[in-house]
């Protein structure tokens, strides 16, 4: 019937307003039951409206070399040389000029070792000879060495050209020599305005007397038979105090004078003269029959060690360097 409203279906359903047409994109948050329950948007504190689900978390870049699927590929295994290089300790940079300072330190050490060698060799030789002679005299029989040498010198002492000089030299080797050496050292100290020459010569003379006297009392060795004496003496024989004192004073005086000589030949002549006079002083004691040869040998060794000790100790106190420079 025309003009009347009919409730019957016409057979062709009317398309719904909520159904999207074919090929149209699905509207976000309408038909999805999960999304339909989410709020349409969540504003952040700054007032910006984000889509449903809240603000997306920022993507954190994965470190290079990560084994995760999103990261870069892992590094290849390091070569042994690169591993050792990484494990090697880091060296601090060398300050400028340190190499020069190290070279200077090594050079000073080398010069000190070169200077120490002759001083230590002479001191060690003197002490070893004195110790060996003392052992030979005290613990063994030194007659096999003493008697032949003593008899040979005694037989030739009466020659007209030797008797007088030997007697004069043996008397001058103790008192007059020490007095002359001390006076010369006193004059040198006054001229140089330094106590060094006087301390060295006087210290060597004093130490020589003390050391020789102590050794005599410790060894308790008798002199040769009195029938062989050409001059009168008293006390024990080992070691020869005349020889110890003469050697110590002459060598110390040579040390003091050598630094004032410019030429090498002059210094060699000075040291040779001091050594020859010391040896002659000892030979005269044996030739005059008042000492055994081993007494003189020990006196020469002890007389050599005394000035080395005195000069070394003075250099250590004065400059802090030990041993003193060679002359």
Automatic annotation (TrEMBL):
SMART domains: acidPPc. Coiled coil: none annotated. Keywords: Membrane, Transmembrane, Transmembrane helix. The chain crosses the membrane at residues 116-138, 168-190, 197-220, 240-258, 270-290, 296-317. InterPro entries: PAP2/HPO, PAP2/HPO_sf. Residues 201-311 form the Phosphatidic acid phosphatase type 2/haloperoxidase domain. Residues 1-13 have a biased composition (Polar residues). SUPFAM superfamilies: Acid phosphatase/Vanadium-dependent haloperoxidase. Residues 1-75 are annotated as: Disordered. It comes from the Bacteria. PANTHER family: AT30094P, SPHINGOSINE-1-PHOSPHATE PHOSPHOHYDROLASE. This is Phosphatidic acid phosphatase type 2/haloperoxidase domain-containing protein. It comes from Streptomyces qinglanensis. The lineage of its organism: Bacteria, Bacillati, Actinomycetota, Actinomycetes, Kitasatosporales.
């Amino acid at each position: 019937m025309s003009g009347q409203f009919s409730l019957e279906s016409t057979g062709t359903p009317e398309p719904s307003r909520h159904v999207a047409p074919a090929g149209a994109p699905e509207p976000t948050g309408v038909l999805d039951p999960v999304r339909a329950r989410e709020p349409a948007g969540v504003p952040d504190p700054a007032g910006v409206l984000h889509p449903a689900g809240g603000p997306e978390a920022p993507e954190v870049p994965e470190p290079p070399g990560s084994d995760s699927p999103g990261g870069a590929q892992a590094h290849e295994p390091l070569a042994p040389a690169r591993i050792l290089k990484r494990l090697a300790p880091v060296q601090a940079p060398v300050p400028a000029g340190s190499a020069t300072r190290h070279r200077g330190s090594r050079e000073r050490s080398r010069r000190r070792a070169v200077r120490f060698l002759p001083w230590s060799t002479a001191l060690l030789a003197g002490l070893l000879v004195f110790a060996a002679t003392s052992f030979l005299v005290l613990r063994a029989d030194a007659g096999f060495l003493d008697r032949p040498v003593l008899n040979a010198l005694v037989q030739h002492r009466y020659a007209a050209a030797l008797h007088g000089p030997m007697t004069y030299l043996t008397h001058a080797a103790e008192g007059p020599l020490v007095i002359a050496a001390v006076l010369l050292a006193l004059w040198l100290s006054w001229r140089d305005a330094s106590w060094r020459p006087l301390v060295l010569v006087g210290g060597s003379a004093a130490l020589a007397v003390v050391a020789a006297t102590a050794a005599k009392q410790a060894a308790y060795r008798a002199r040769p038979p009195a029938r062989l004496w050409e001059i009168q003496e008293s006390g024990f024989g080992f070691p020869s105090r005349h020889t110890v004192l003469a050697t110590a004073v002459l060598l110390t005086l040579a040390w003091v004078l050598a630094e004032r000589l410019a030429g090498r030949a002059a210094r060699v002549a000075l040291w040779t003269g001091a050594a020859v006079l010391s040896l002659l002083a000892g030979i005269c004691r044996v030739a005059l029959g008042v000492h055994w040869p081993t007494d003189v040998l020990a006196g020469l060794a002890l007389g050599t060690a005394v000035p080395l000790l005195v000069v070394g100790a003075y250099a250590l106190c004065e400059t802090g360097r030990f041993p003193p420079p060679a002359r």
